Amino acid sequence: MQSELFPPDVPSAQNATPDAARPSPRWPAAQPELARAPKPARAAPVPLWMQRFSLVVLVTFCLYLGLLLFCLPWTRFWVQNPYILAYPKLGHLLLHGTTRGVVSGIGLMDIWIGLTEVIHYRNSHNGEAVSRA
């Protein structure tokens, strides 16, 4: 079934005609007119209101998740968690200060991403949003 995925390396006896010396027509390199086909037209730019709405959703999500991850390891919800109480080995790992610090650090990074997106958001002349990564 999948024998057509790769062309044979050696031409078979039935393909020993002079036409077999040519590259396989399945590959684009064998058909230069297909390789130089015109590129499809650019899609219409995204409306400005949709760009701004997606920015608001992204920033809201980043700030909310960042605050949650930053504060959660230091609350009673982290300590009195049913998973921690049910699995003592997991609880020992999750209650360690380093684990709490890493989770809080991820929260700070998430907050930073949201604020950076807000600060560096600009509209370009053609209506496409430009955001510095």
Can you summarize this structure?
This protein is mainly alpha-helical. The chain has two domains: 2-35, no CATH class; 48-131. The protein has six helices and two strands.
From the structure above, extract its key features.
single chain; 133 residues; mainly alpha; two-stranded antiparallel sheet
Describe the structure in your own words.
This protein is mainly alpha-helical. It folds into 2 domains: 2-35, no CATH class; 48-131. It has helices spanning 32-35, 48-71, 76-79, 82-86, 88-94, 97-119; strands at residues 121-123, 129-131. It has a two-stranded antiparallel ribbon. Helix 2 (48-71) packs antiparallel against helix 6. The chain is flat, with a radius of gyration of 29 Å. Mean pLDDT is 78; it is low at 125-129.
User: Which term fits the overall shape?
Assistant: flat
Number of helices: 6
What is the typical, i.e. mean, pLDDT? 78
Strand order of the largest sheet: 1-2
Structure summary, number of beta strands: 2
Q: What structural class do helix, strand and pairing data support?
A: mainly alpha
**Residues in helix, %:** 40-55%
Largest sheet: 2 strands, antiparallel
Radius of gyration over C-alpha positions, nearest whole angstrom: 29 Å
